[in-house]
Amino acid sequence: MSALLPRPRRTVADGAVLVPDWLDLGEQRRLVEACRGWARGPVPMRAARLPTGHAMSVQTVCLGWHWQPYRYSRTADDAGGERVLPVPEWLAQLGKRAVADAYDAASGAAYEPDAALINLYDDAARMGMHRDQEERADAPVVSLSIGDTCTFRFGNPDTRNKPYADVELQSGDLFVFGGPSRFAYHGVPKVFPGTADPDCGLTSGRLNITLRVTGLEGER
Ligand code: SIN
Ligand code: MN
After folding, report:
1. Has residue 220 been placed in a domain?
2. Number of domains composing the chain
3. Which of 47, 135, 147, 167 sits between 20 and 30 A of 121, alpha carbons compared?
4. pTM (2 decimals)?
């Protein structure tokens, strides 16, 4: 739900910036619609399986490169074997605009994301503290949130424990982490059911889209 008072942008750690209400409701609905399409295939949205054998509680579908714990491939080797769809140009452009708004115009112009992970959280889903470290590039990660509010825990590059900050991510919020924060531990300990404005396009749950630069061009 949009706040009555504007929520100020916030630097959570060096290189980690929260830009509240970055997507308007129309942009959120368009992204939700696009995610519905991507979830239909050719690679189905699925709960990735961890090396322990446990399924993650979030459902994921990827663009550009398929992610599974803990590697990227062009084909969805753990989910039917099809090649993933490319990152559409409009989504890459959105990523450039996100980095420009969070950092500066030059950083935005230089940003060329080649992978997107779309995560769907139901009321019970969580994501444990982890680092986005399968990429071989240190370009920032762009995170867009739609639907129910969550607690996003953003820590430090050295330990999954304190110090960390608990940040509320609401529908439409942009979070960018790069520079000294690029490999910081982060996670989602809680989603708050029923907190989204239904006009965002989701009637329940939380959608998170992260854009990344894998640095894997030419590999398989
Ligand atoms: C992620 O860490 O990949 C997703 C974070 C989020 O859902 O906000
Ligand atoms: Mn992550």
Report:
1. no
2. 1
3. 135
4. 0.97
| Residue 127 in contact with ligand 1 by CB distance below 6 A | yes
Question: From the CB of 208, is ligand 1 less than 6 Å away?
Answer: yes
> Which of 83-88's residues contact partners 24+ apart within 8 Å by CB, and which partners?
83/42, 83/43, 84/42, 84/43, 85/38, 85/42, 85/43, 87/63, 87/113, 87/114, 87/115, 87/116, 87/211, 88/34, 88/63
Q: Residue 54 sits in a domain of what CATH number? A: 2.60.120.590
pLDDT at 3: 57
Mean pLDDT, rounded, for 99-113: 98
Tell me the percentage of the chain whose pLDDT exceeds 90: 96
Q: What is the pLDDT of residues 59-73, one digit of tens each?
A: 999 999 999 999 999
Lookup: tokens for 218: 């030419």
Q: Confirm whether 1 is domain-assigned.
A: no
Atom of ligand 1 nearest to the CA of 150: 8
